[in-house]
Amino acid sequence: MASPSPSLLSLFTLLSLLTLLPPSTTQTTITLSLSPPAKPPHTNPWKRLSHLASSSIARASHLKQPHKKNSSLTEIPLFPHAYGGYSVSLGFGTPPQTLSLLLDTGSSLVWVPCTTHYACTKCDFPNINPTNISTFIPKRSSSAKILGCKNPKCGWLFGPGIRSQCEDCAEGSGNCTRICPAYGIQYGSGSTSGILLSDTLDLPEKSVEDFLIGCSIFSTQQPSGIVGFGRGLESLPAQMGLKKFSYCLVSHRFDEESESSDLILTTGSHYGVTKTEEDLGLSYTPFVKNKLGNDSAFEEYYYVNLRKITVGGKHVRVPYDLLVQGSDGHGGTIVDSGTTFTFMEGKVYEAVAREFERQMAHYSRDAGLENQSGFRPCYNVSGGEEVVLLFPELVFHFKGGAKMKLPLADYFSLVGESMAVCMTIVTDMGGDIVGGPSIILGNFQQQDFYLEYDLENERLGFRKQTCK
């Protein structure tokens, strides 16, 4: 038998090598500007903190009991929607219409105030006229389409069985004229409802066609929309097929400074020469799937395995059934950009607070400030910043050995010229909020950390970093 020619051998060799080599670099990054919380209307910093505490508890109630109506909704103080959260500007439609939306890793739908008939009740905030809120106008977009019941994306919100519930949309039916049902979503600080559209998402150097968005027509305490970064199919990361996204949250700052940082979206996989995890300085811990699976309302949350909490190097004894998810899906820890102050279920919070109180017994407690602010413990620190630097360190220890050592400003707040500080972690004093995650890691405790949500490898990475 004749031997292959040299050129043929070279071809075989090249093909063999190509099957062994990883694909070429196809990674693309998109950088967006992430704005810090809006300037609050009150001049008393402790009143602002107290409001944020109330809002954080209301948010925790929703995340822990997503199907339960929040009866205390109308009792929450009214503040601008973005106060306490971080916002990003996105363009929708052809030509694009730009709106500022709240970044939320605890929910998935991307929705915008929509049409000239948008109505928002309890939205008469300082500097916000509820009759003059920026809205998306579908009629001005040549690519906007109302979503029909037959569209698979309708099932992202309502489940695959929705087609059988729609008139003329039974399985196998070729005639479907009914639109996807109206949605209604409740958040800790408000609610919204509307219809689903598909339109073009406009990003720097990239556009995403047939992007699912919620066209909200009625809202309560929600003067601006939300961009969901949760784990649901309707979220921005899922619709764009992101491999990862990352952000670095600038300080809340409780003053008049206003700076922004970057929200980085990464599509495609990056193969070949790149920086190692050590070069990036990131510590990683794996995401944990909720044990109730895809039928659970908790499936869109970013769960992580928090192994232990230490205060001043002392291991805080937290009940195991709260620290780790049980077979009923309750317990465990989630990371949520939409919650301001970290929430801990009563038994977890009490264990942490008691350890701080034990190690800080030589400081003078401020009971009046505790009653005024809703935080505990609070201390007089007449010695100034030098004394504050001696406070015990709070560290979250995650599976895989990752340690999140919080800067003091992330868990004790010294506001303005006040010589008093309070621990900025909240709980439900009445003990009525049960079920769901036991710990919700809020954005206040994420300040000046670079966080990477590595969706491709199912893990969370973080490092301390001064955010610009």
Automatic annotation (TrEMBL):
This protein's GO CC annotations: extracellular region
Protein name per its UniProtKB record: Peptidase A1 domain-containing protein
Superkingdom of this protein's organism: Eukaryota
Entries under InterPro entries matching the protein: Aspartic_peptidase_A1, Aspartic_peptidase_AS, Pepsin-like_plant, PEPTIDASE_A1, Peptidase_aspartic_dom_sf, Plant_Aspart_Prot_A1, TAXi_C, TAXi_N
Peptidase A1 domain: residues covered: 86-463
GO biological process, one term: proteolysis
Active site residues according to the UniProt entry: D104, D336
Keywords for the protein's UniProt record, in alphabetical order: Aspartyl protease, Glycoprotein, Hydrolase, Protease, Signal
One GO molecular-function entry: aspartic-type endopeptidase activity
PROSITE patterns, A to Z: ASP_PROTEASE, PEPTIDASE_A1
Protein family according to the UniProt entry: Belongs to the peptidase A1 family.
